[in-house]
Amino acid sequence: MAHKFTLNPESLKRRFAVYIVIAKGCEDMKLYVGKTGDNREGCNPIISRCGNHFSYNRVHSQVRNKIPNHEFREYTYIFDLFDEYYEDNQRRREAVDRINEMERWFNQEVQEIVAGIDGCELLNPYLGRGGVSRTERSKRSAFRTDEAEKKIMSIVADLQQEIGENAQSDPIKVGSAKKEGKS
C-alpha cells in the first residue's frame, strides 16, 4: 500500500514559526507546542523540526521522547510564520525574543482549551516559573500586538476544529492570555 505525505510551501520557508503537534491515538490526544528559530544560529523550516521530533537522537526528538507508542498515532501540525530569518545579530535577537513570547502566549491559550477535555493532554505546558522583571515583562507585552493576536488565534481556531467539538471553549475564556498580559 502506498502512502502520501504532502508539504505546503509555507512549511519549507526559513522563518520563525509557532506550531502545535496533534498526536491522535485511538483513545486520546497528545499535544505539543513548539517554535522554530529559537537556536543561536540558523532557523530551519518547520518541516525540519517535524522530522527532528521523530528522530532517534533523544536530544532532538521531543515528541518521540514523550509518546512511547508514537508509531501508532496520526499527526497533524498547525502553524503560522512570524519573522523572517535575519543574518544581522541584533535583528535576529529581537526575532528570537518575539518567537519565544509567541510560544509562551500560544501555550497559555492551548492550556485553556484542553483544561476540561478528557483524554487530551498538553505534553509541555508553560509553567511560568521564576521571576520576570518589570522591564522584561514590558518587553514581552510589546510583542503581543493585534497582528500577532490574529496569527495566534488563527492557530487556536484551527486547533479547536482539529480536536473536535469537545474542545469548544467559552469564547470569553479563549484569548484571555493577551488581555491579562500573562507571561
Low-pLDDT residue intervals, each spanning 5 or more residues: 165-173
What's the overall geometry?
Answer: globular
Output the structural class.
alpha+beta
Strand content: 15-25%
Number of helices: 6
The major β-sheet equals: 4 strands, mixed
**DSSP, total strands:** 4
Domain count: 1
Description:
This protein has 183 residues and is of the alpha+beta class. It has one domain (11-180). Helix content is 39%, strand content 17%. A hairpin with a 4-residue loop joins strand 1 (15-24) and strand 2. The N and C termini lie far apart (47 Å).
How would you summarize what this structure contains?
This protein has 183 residues and is of the alpha+beta class. It has helices at 46-53, 62-66, 89-114, 134-142, 146-163, 176-180; strands at 15-24, 29-36, 74-84, 120-122. The chain has one domain.
State the main characteristics:
183 residues, alpha+beta
Outline the secondary-structure elements.
Blueprint: E1 15-24, E2 29-36, H1 46-53, H2 62-66, E3 74-84, H3 89-114, E4 120-122, H4 134-142, H5 146-163, H6 176-180
